[in-house]
From TrEMBL:
Keywords attached to this entry: DNA-binding
An example molecular function term from Gene Ontology annotations: DNA binding
DNA-binding region positions on the chain: 26-45
Top-level division of the source organism's lineage: Bacteria
Designated name of the protein: TetR family transcriptional regulator
Keyword Lipid metabolism: no
InterPro entries reported in the protein's UniProt record: Homeodomain-like_sf, HTH-type_TetR-like_transc_reg, HTH_TetR, Tet_transcr_reg_TetR-rel_C_sf
SUPFAM superfamilies linked to this entry: Homeodomain-like, Tetracyclin repressor-like, C-terminal domain
UniProt-listed Gene3D superfamilies: Homeodomain-like, Tetracycline Repressor, domain 2
Domain HTH tetR-type span(s) in chain numbering: 3-63
Transmembrane segments: none
Length: 206
């Protein structure tokens, strides 16, 4: 029962945070939404900072599992990068676009967990995809995979910068798909470009 309650609190808080942002939601509102007392939440989490960290950790673990599933399902490195971008797009479809900014500004410990995830997990995953693509002749041999992997990650995160891309003007889902299209066309060989066109169902000119 204690484990089930703890998971219920994390899931309930995550749902609230993703919909409305992190800063505005109070422990009282989380408790009210779950139909429990605030005291019950404090039995498991000493404060909101600790709860936000737990929500972030839980979210990142789910993402790591999704990366493994994408790797298993992808037909090739181009398909894998497209599927990864689609996953990112879909996972943020109903998420308040200011959430990452709020976590960075008000919950530095939770944000550090996100930074560590980017460096240790996501970057490593993208490096592996890029190396596979080079071996298969889909990506250019002259690209620096460490540099390009970091560029891709920062490109993803840039889409959440509301000062650069106001969400009402640039919907996050469309933005991320534009980014991956631009990214792939920059790193692909002629063989890779032909494969992109196949996936996009574009008829090549003679």
């Amino acid at each position: 029962m204690p484990i089930e309650m703890k998971e219920r609190i994390v899931k309930g808080a995550e749902e609230f945070f993703l919909s409305y942002g992190v800063k505005i939601i109070t422990m009282d509102e989380i408790a009210r939404n779950l139909g429990i007392s605030k005291k019950t939440i404090y039995q498991y989490y000493k404060d909101k900072n600790e709860l936000v960290c737990e929500v972030m950790n839980n979210h990142l673990k789910e993402r790591e599992q999704s990366y493994l599933q994408i790797a298993d399902l992808a037909a090739d490195p181009i398909d894998e990068l497209i599927k990864l971008s689609e996953y990112i797009r879909d996972s943020f479809r109903n998420i308040n676009s200011i959430i990452l900014f709020e976590v960075e500004r008000y919950f530095p410990k939770a944000y550090k967990n996100w930074v560590d995830h980017k460096e240790k997990c996501l970057k490593g995953y993208i490096v592996d995809i890029l190396n596979k693509g080079k071996i298969q002749g889909l990506f250019r041999q002259d690209i620096n995979v460490e540099m390009i992997a970091r560029l891709r990650i920062e490109e993803i995160q840039l889409g959440f910068n509301i000062a650069v891309f106001p969400p009402l003007q640039f919907p996050i889902q469309e933005l991320q798909m534009q980014f991956i299209d631009y990214f792939l066309h920059g790193i692909c060989t002629l063989k890779g470009h032909k494969l992109i066109n196949q996936y996009k169902k574009i008829q090549e000119e003679d």
